[in-house]
Amino acid sequence: MLQADEPVLNGIKQGLAKYYSETGLFIKEVNYDKGVENGIGRAFAEDGRIISLLIYKNGYLVKDEKINRTDKFNFKQGVWKEFYPDQKTKTEANYKDDKLEGPFKYYSTDGTIKKMEVYKNGELVVDKLQSVKLEIKRDYHNNGRPKSSVNLIDGKKQGVYREYSREGVITSAKMFRNDNVVAEGLVDESMLYQALEISLS
Q1: Same domain, 144 and 124
Q2: Long-range contacts, stretch 196-201, CB < 8 angstroms, 24+ apart
Q3: pLDDT value, residue 186
Q4: 54 and 115 both lie in a single domain
């Protein structure tokens, strides 16, 4: 049976709830808004690594991104991510049978990709890396402050697209994957999505 630490405001669940296994291991956290799950959640392995990134909308789980998984031989498989202390993505890579396979992305603290490497069967592919065009597209207000920013990889929007007010405050954000919007909504100061609109395609 799970042990729960659920914040309550006026008799209604509100805020970040934490769940523990019978042995006391921290295994899951979920955000509540007005009594229902809403926003970002995370699931954890026994060793503390994040193994699922969860997105809830109005009490329903609409996305479960499985990351940092190993198989029965303890080989890394699939997407692996590292995070900064504020839970923003630090690195993102793909593994096949414990070997790096495909793009290895390094993110800055503002969510933009600052470096990318390409691997094949665990080896860095220099020729492929040189052919990948990585840039950050920014638009500006007439007062010189950023108006919007997004990563472009080979001309396609990837990752977080942000819009800013003239005062430099983030007003909205979208998540792109291969030029397609997969999530959008307002964000808080930690870049966690609020009022989510999710595309499951």
Answers
A1: no
A2: 196/38, 196/39, 196/55, 196/57, 196/62, 198/55, 198/57, 198/62, 198/63, 200/62, 200/63
A3: 56
A4: no
